[in-house]
């Protein structure tokens, strides 16, 4: 066997494909193991019932070393349930399944994965089998969605992504609700991922209720977009939470109602409001903004006045915390990373197909979330003072 391996290496032939030296080794190992399992199955008690060996069948197994044809022992009563290669199993999961799931998590289509496996391992795996393999993470996804959470999160960002999914022959829209959080150690964590037909305060209420049921007792600061009813939904579940509405969303919504010829001048005055040194100065600049633009754009100015308390909470903090909370950039940045993987997809085949890919993508992204945010110790001290008695830190 060693001489054959050396010969194949010298000639440039694959050791793992058809005719490769590894194939007969794996074949011999599997057949010996199956024979031993059958011997163990045919105990004295089993034989006393008239059961015994009943010839052999054949099946093809796809492995990381190519496709291998093996002989499988059979018993007369058909009660033998092998473990190393289970009935109807067509692929050795320990060798290829992790690779397949890894490629799927990087956004490769099932057909592309099939081509890649064929090229790399001389093994043909159909898209149908690949789909069955990726479905094995479904229990893992559900367990992750329902895992217990910390009792307190200092900062959370809430936002939704939108996708197309096939549903009974139709292509429909789906909103994926994500809650990105900073825990007490200063590390990022996606604490919730939910799917619904559309984004709305009513569904956000059910999302927040689920967080509470999973152990969250308090959220110090919640950063959100300007969705109607969002604040009410948060406060109905976490009444002591401080809400910071996204300044960038407010600006975008404002500019929709400002004529293009006025936008440059309007933004020059608006920047003086949200870039003010403190809240007092910002409110003076907001009055000036109203005097300058209130008659021409009353709806825009009214929106800033009505939302001001939840737009201006960031002024009470120093620069590091301000940068964290005055926009929803943190969760939008996470969404951009997810879309790098999902952008090649058209409509997903199902809601679960969408959740599977986002979950696997999140697992890859989260590998970089092992360290606390920069200067987190100082940030935490400020939050402890601002929200006295609510963090319960162990010293």
From TrEMBL:
Query: Pfam families, per this entry?
Result: Transposase_mut
Coiled-coil features, chain-numbered ranges: none
* Entry superkingdom: Bacteria
Q: What does this protein do?
A: Required for the transposition of the insertion element.
What protein name applies here? Mutator family transposase
Biological process per Gene Ontology, one example term: DNA transposition
What is the originating organism of this protein? Thermophagus xiamenensis
User: What would be an example GO MF term here?
Assistant: DNA binding
According to the UniProt entry, which residue ranges have a biased composition of type Basic residues?
50-61
What ranges does the record give for the region Disordered, renumbered to this chain? 40-61
Give the keywords, sorted: DNA recombination, DNA-binding, Transposable element, Transposition
**Residue ranges, compositional bias (Basic and acidic residues):** 40-49
The family annotation for this protein states: Belongs to the transposase mutator family.
């Amino acid at each position: 066997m060693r001489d054959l391996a050396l010969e194949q290496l010298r000639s440039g032939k694959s050791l793992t494909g058809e005719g490769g030296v590894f194939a007969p080794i794996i074949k011999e190992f599997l057949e010996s193991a199956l024979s031993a399992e059958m011997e163990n199955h045919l105990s004295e008690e089993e034989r006393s019932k008239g059961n015994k060996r009943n010839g052999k069948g054949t099946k093809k197994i796809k492995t990381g070393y190519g496709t291998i044809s093996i002989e499988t022992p059979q018993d007369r009563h058909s009660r033998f349930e092998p473990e190393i290669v289970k009935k109807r199993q067509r692929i050795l999961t320990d060798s290829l399944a992790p690779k397949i799931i890894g490629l799927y998590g990087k956004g490769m289509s099932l057909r592309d994965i099939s081509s890649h496996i064929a090229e790399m391992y001389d093994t043909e795996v159909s898209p149908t089998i690949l789909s069955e393999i990726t479905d094995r993470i479904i229990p893992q996804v559900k367990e992750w969605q329902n895992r217990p959470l910390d009792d307190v999160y200092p900062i959370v960002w809430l936002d939704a992504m939108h996708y197309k999914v096939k549903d009974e022959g139709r292509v429909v829209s789906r909103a994926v609700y994500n809650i990105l959080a900073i825990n007490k150690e200063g590390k990022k964590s996606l604490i919730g991922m939910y799917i619904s037909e559309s984004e709305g305060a009513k569904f956000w209420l059910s999302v927040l209720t689920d967080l509470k049921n999973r152990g969250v007792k308090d959220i110090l600061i919640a950063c959100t977009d300007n969705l109607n009813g969002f604040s009410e939904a948060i406060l109905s579940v976490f009444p002591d939470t401080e809400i910071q509405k996204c300044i960038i969303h407010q600006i975008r919504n404002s500019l929709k109602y400002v004529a293009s010829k006025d936008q440059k001048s309007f933004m020059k005055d608006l920047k003086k409001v949200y870039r003010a040194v403190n809240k007092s100065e910002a409110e003076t600049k907001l009055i000036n903004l109203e005097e300058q633009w209130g008659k021409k754009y009353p709806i825009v100015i009214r929106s800033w006045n009505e939302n001001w308390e939840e737009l201006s909470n960031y002024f009470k903090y120093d620069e590091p915390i301000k940068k964290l909370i005055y926009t929803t950039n943190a969760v939008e940045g996470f969404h951009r990373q997810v879309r790098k993987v999902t952008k090649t997809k058209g409509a997903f085949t199902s809601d679960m197909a969408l959740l599977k890919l986002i979950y696997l993508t999140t697992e890859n992204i989260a590998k970089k979330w092992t360290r606390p945010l920069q200067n987190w110790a100082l940030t935490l001290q400020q939050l402890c003072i601002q929200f006295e008695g609510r963090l319960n830190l162990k010293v």
